[in-house]
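Changelog-adjacent note: as of this version, every example in the card shows the full chain rather than a window. The one below runs 688 residues end to end.
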Amino acid sequence: MFLRELGQSVTVLSGVGRSIAERLARLGISTVADLLLRYPRDYDDRSSFVPLASFASSERVHTIAEVVDHEWFGFARMRTLKIRIRDESGTAILVCFNRPFLEQSLPIGARAVVTGKFQYRYGDIQSSSFEVERLEGESAGVSAILPVYPLTEGLQQGQMRRLVKRALTEYGMRVEEELPPALRERHGILPKREALASAHFPEDGRRLEEARRSLIFEELFYFQVAIARRAMRRREAEVPRPPVRGLLKSRLVERLPFELTADQVKTSEEIARDMGESRPMSRLLQGDVGSGKTLVAFLACLDAIEAGGQAAFMAPTELLARQHAATAARLLEPLGVRLAFLSGNVDDAARPPLLAALREGRIDLVLGTQALFSEEVEYRRLALAVVDEQHRFGVLQRLALGRKGSLPDLLMMTATPIPRTLALTVFGDLEVSTIRTMPPGRKSVVTHLTKVGNEARVYEFVRGLLAAGRQAYFVYPLIGESERLELKNAEAMAERLRTEVYPEFPLGLIHSRLKDEEKRRAMDDFVAGRTRILVATSVVEVGVDVPNAAAMVVEHAERFGLAALHQLRGRVGRGSDQSYCFLVYADGLTADAKARLKAMLASTDGFALAEEDLRIRGPGELAGTAQSGYLRLTIADPVRDARILETARSEAFAIVEADPALLSADNAVLREVLERANPFADAPVGQG
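Full-length structure tokens:
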């Protein structure tokens, strides 16, 4: 992105010694480029001056004053400097605690810009919390808008501003222009060095807006270039495709006791069309909780198997993987499909023959956890990899599964719908299939918010459902007691619910610390109806399908994210009877917690909630992007900057499709940009 000099250590800047370099490193700033790309988090508009005489009626004073006197008070280490200043309206005192150096930098007669909170004390207007910047020459050069940077202990705003100014002065002119000239002219994009300077120290609000828009466009443009390159390489790759008539699919659909929804039919056809083309498929299947994605994925697996290949179906937890395996056994084994289950808990005796069967092609569909892509696992011909709840896997894990075959088709699934802006950013090189319609006959889950202290009313309502033969979940944020957090926990509440609240109903407990056999037993008992209440942590968030469950009680709901709450609510309402979700919250809610709970009360639409979650949490936290390394945006926000994103995407795809060589990876500047935008931009085709 920059000439080589900008990759040098910040210590090349005058005034940056070891101690300041260490403090900057805590902020992730180690090079000059890092410093220039550390954009302000806010701006302090000082375009209007407020004289000393207006200290009582204004939030702060902002004036140009002259130093008229120095005075010291106190003794030894408590000795403190006082500087008397004067502007056109009056005089005041700056009390310089721990700033004795100001005696030298602000000598008598010096003029300075002073900003701070003043009050009347001991017969004078004075301030101990102020910023001061000495003026050299006339005041015309005073900045009206000052940047406000993220800081760490030992660094002050004044220091950061001086360091950035120094970097701009000494290295700013060496910034290389990246965008093609015609593209910049078409969209009114400022030259890069001008945009950088104005983003840090804008002349006015209009110039700041121009600079930010230019930098945002550039960042999103190169991000989309990375995505366009991946999409183009995938289109150019070729894989052999034997003809598939869809006989296995037809036999499965005929055996189902219900009809597929219109969206299931549509998405299944989209996937089949992809799997019939010469390029490898890379598709995201998204749909709300309970919309029938798993069945669509099984239909895709049948096409891969009918074509002579193997399919691998990966889930993030053993609990979910086993449930998928049980469903596959019920639906697919009668069709002659040879199934296997593989996780890290498959015992040593069973593992070698299972791996041999996979390697020799005697298994058609293997379901399991991330063990499916471990080094020892080999496939005879992996034709389709299905990744369920894809956001729970890191990018490297998904790449590893893709490498198990010769350009296998990849189908990623999520029950956390991806907002359009995030889909264009994170999954912009994928085709997206969406299931919006739910199976007929299901009723919307009724959601209630309940404050701590009113749980008894919730418990009594749930008792009525249990007495009518239904089942209930109780979910808690902690497994056991915590020394730091005064929260209800699953273990203690399981005992209380069993002995005090519902002694007449059998109860089970499940959480991540239990042995796998205990977890399986607890889940099997609940699915079979042998237990009527299941106390759990968020381990039941995904994949648990018990149509008889009518109540979901989440205690300390403020401790869960919006996506998690929606997923938990999706565990009920999977039958034809009315179901209920109770979110019990504590006092002292944060603004974000209030927003999450209000959103849950207002909507049961997973797509609407995904947009709200993106607004609350930001793009880097969603869809596994924070842990996957996908989003390394420094100034752009896909939600806020959706229009710029659309324009940048259109330009990027048009340029790459028209002339891929124009933006060749041999271009050193582009290569650095792409690596920063997406570290997996150049992963082999079919492995992203």
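Structural remarks: DSSP finds 23 helices and 20 strands in the chain.
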